[in-house]
Model the fold of this input.
Amino acid sequence: MKRTWILVAALVALLVLAASPLFAGGQGASKEEVKKCRVWFWGEDEAVGITDWMKENAALYMKQHPEESWEITHIDIDAIYTGFKAAVEAKDAPELHTAWSGLNTLQFAFTGEIVPVSDYVSKKVTDRIYPAEKQGAYWNGKLWNAALYLDPWYGMLNRKVWKAAGVDSDKFPTEWKEFVAALQKIKAAGYVPWSAGMKDGYYSDFFSSCMQYAYYNSVDEMHQGILGQTSMAKPPHDGWWYAVAELRDKKLLNDDVMSLSLAEGIDRFMKGDVGYSSCVQPQATMARTTLGDDAVDVAICPVPSKAKLAGHLPIPTNPLIMPAVAKYKQEAGKFIEFYLSAERQNALYAKTGVMPATDQVDPALMKNAVDRKTLEWVKTKACFTYQEHLPPSIMESMFAICQEMVGGDIGAKEAAQKFEDAVAKWRKENPKDVEYYKKWAPEAR
Amino acid sequence: MTVSRGNNLKGYLFILPALLSIGVVFAYPLFQNLYFSLLDLAQAGRPFSGMRNYVLMAADPLFWTSLRNNALLILLVPVLVVVALVFAVVLFERVRGWRFYRGVMLIPYITSITAVGLFFTLFFQGRGILNTLLRSLGLESLVVDWLGSTRWALPAIMVVIVWREFGFGAMLFLARLATVPEELFEAARLDGAGWLRRLRNVVVPQLATVIEFYVFIMIVTMLSWVFNYIYVMTLGGPARSTFVTELYIYIMAFRMQKMGVASGVSIILLLITAALAFISLRFRSRLLAEYE
Done:
């Protein structure tokens, strides 16, 4: 009996030893040292081919760093914030995660859920990112995200439609009145002048971000409105509401604008019977692929404004952030440095046609006029992006108000007043966020 | 005495696994949610905020719009009962092809809400099937952007809900009718009762408990199971005119990052549903007592 017990005890001891890391060390030491890093990102919907580019980055990087393994996961657009929140809550976040820039990123900095990218990426590298991409992503003197690619926010036009309507698209209007007159001619010729989709509300972002900045002399004016020093219901803040109302009143938007989503509104343009739509550069690239290089051009939407920023171009970015709970932050920093290298940035353009975020892209690679024009604007006309300076919780109100106005239930004046009320409500209900905003605003110039 | 105590303990041990799973699946999330609703989750360190989330919720007109829309959807329940009842009785009368209709009637109910929602989105869209049909019939004046209009979006969704949900009620009623002794209908017929009278005096009383059950299920559906319809068809728009409480919770939590407010609203929704369940159960037991 005693012998049996001794045998059992010995067996158990052997099993425990076999399972222990000490014992396993001899065989699998190198495997255990591999640092498993993850990237959860979004972009394929607009930058077709970016997932392949990211996977290529990972493969090349792992060759140089065999002690690291990089897993690339493309996430759904609706899961960007839900997925991030859930991962942070579970303390199992990836090393790098997608977020949009400006306050969309910094809302997580305020809550301590992310760490500054500039703590892990050398200044030499971040200095190469275009300044407009970093504007709004600084807080406490640190940069909180790293751009993946640029999203210049302008308009795309179908030259064939303009020509068929008897309007010269080569002389794209620089005045609002001329622009509206051109759209009216397009309508009279039987085409849809401007296609949009308001069902999900996101096109409100397109309207406001492609127009409202041009009513300001500087971003400070917008900050003053958000902080209540001036009224969002009055000039210069209310400009875009009146411009959109005019498009509505003159029936220059597609007649199904209210039942199409943002993506469907943009897709409407791809059908070839639409004159104009707001877009980001990757969407213009898609339109060129669908309608042909000679058919599609890009333009900056004119607005009735003589402010200093009129004629400039908002250039938001699709960046990556570093969750505070991520395990390998140093490694993530090095990975960012790798994908922001000149070679990888040029590979990004070659693979996807989207604008790389750093100034290292080789202009000789750009074979079409639209991209060359865009790059020129990125270098010379960049300015802040309205959406990135709007507290995220106000966006939802803006969507609803814009839907109400485009749907014909209210006019521009009422819409602007409702928006002012929404901003005032945000200030009242979120005193701490207002404090953060006040502190951040000077850094966001 | 000791034996009885031992038996009691044994009994509790038997139900322990069930209690544990209920605790993990229901009680833990419920209490966690309640706890979250008392915190300011948007701030670093998640400070205790007392009733602030509930105050914010009560001060938000969108919350009341959402509740109002849920209440409007509850008004669909009598419509659903009547439609389901009519279909059940007609099929019970074994009209020609009744077996076919019985099968067809259940198709909407077994089709996923997402698929139904997507189809009806295309149906009601500005350039959708309905408007194309109206135009081809020369009824241009009736063309409306059904889902894009603050006036028509909710009624359009209501039509879809009735279309999909009535089949379940009709099947329930039909199943119950099949168990009613034929003599009852025969006796009513011999007494000279017409179709309507038989419906009122025989069918409805016999179906009372099933109707009550269906009403309860549909009320809960209108409060807590309409998210899919709204999310797929309108996303709460246009201009928030089709927001319901579930969507409000979702938007608060994941778009506006107000997780505390979302937790508070889900507690309120649970309380409302529980209150209605309680009333329904009281009503049901009274009904059963009368029936017996």
User: Anything to note?
Assistant: Chain A touches chain B at residues 81-82, 85, 107, 110-112, 198-201, 255-261, 392-393, 395-396, 399-401, 403-404, 407, 409, 429-430, 432-433 (CB under 8 Å). The longest strand of chain A covers residues 35-41. Residues 20-29 of chain A have pLDDT under 50 and may be disordered. The domain at 30-151+317-377 of chain A is CATH 3.40.190.10 (D-Maltodextrin-Binding Protein; domain 2).
